[in-house]
Amino acid sequence: MLAPSFVVSAALDDADIEHTVEAVAGACAVYRKALDAGDPTPWLGGRPVKPVFRRRA
């Protein structure tokens, strides 16, 4: 899931919202490439994160 939710605050102005929309659009383009390729490895950077919910700590 790319983002479970986006919360809009009264502290944000139109430029902040536009910046967020542009960033999400760019991320979606990368997601599309990874999905089309069937392998996200070329688009990954850094170490993978561990699942939040584990059976054992």
Task: Please sum up the structure shown.
By secondary structure, the chain is an all-alpha fold. The protein contains one helix and no strands. The model has no long low-confidence stretch (mean pLDDT 84).
Spatial gap, N to C terminus: 24 Å
Largest sheet: none
List the total number of helices. Answer: 1
Helix content: 40-55%
Strand content: under 5%
Features:
mainly alpha, 0% strand, single chain
Write a structural description.
The protein is mainly alpha-helical and 57 residues long. It is 42% helix and 0% strand. It contains 1 helix and no strands. It has one helix spanning 14-37. The radius of gyration is 15 Å and the shape is flat.
Topology summary:
Blueprint: H1 14-37
